[in-house]
Amino acid sequence: MENPAETTTKTPVEEPVEYVQDEVEASKKPHTDVESSGGEATTTSILRRWKIKDVLKKGGLVLRIAALVFSILSFIIMVSNKHRGQNFDDVEEYRYLVAIGILSTLYTGFQVGRQVHHMSTGISLFDHRTSGLVDFFGDQIVAYLLLSSASAAVPHTNWLRENADNIFTDTAAASISMAFFAFFSLAGSAMISGYKLSAQNYI
pTM of the entire structure? Predict the structure, then answer.
């Protein structure tokens, strides 16, 4: 006789379909949450980077416009400084201030025109790397020249005021003040240009 235990076949116990589906969905949920959080973090980072880039671009433009206005005022005020037989052209420091004021006006005017053209048309006169280098070194050089010319004119103006404080010395002081304001504006622009240059991939 055959043993009943040997002839008995074991039938596999099937788990309910709903239970299996629940396990599958539960295993997928953590991956979905990780992917979703990672995507949100990437999107937030990109948006923040774009916002910073836009603020820096507009900030640099505003500072260069300010430098342009102050540079124009500086050399125009000094050129018109002719009172009671005194002429700015007789003072070497004042001639130097006028020359740098004109140079700063030309430089900042070019930079403002270039930036406005790029923002309105999306076309840049230089490639990205060259543009960053021109902005950084140009701002620094012209800012240094503005500071140098204004600083050179201060001692002579103070000496003239000790002898005679009149409209000639007051006009010279106003021109020097505009040169200092132009310097501060370009110094701020140079800081922005340096940050943008350091953020480029080839640095």
Answer: 0.71
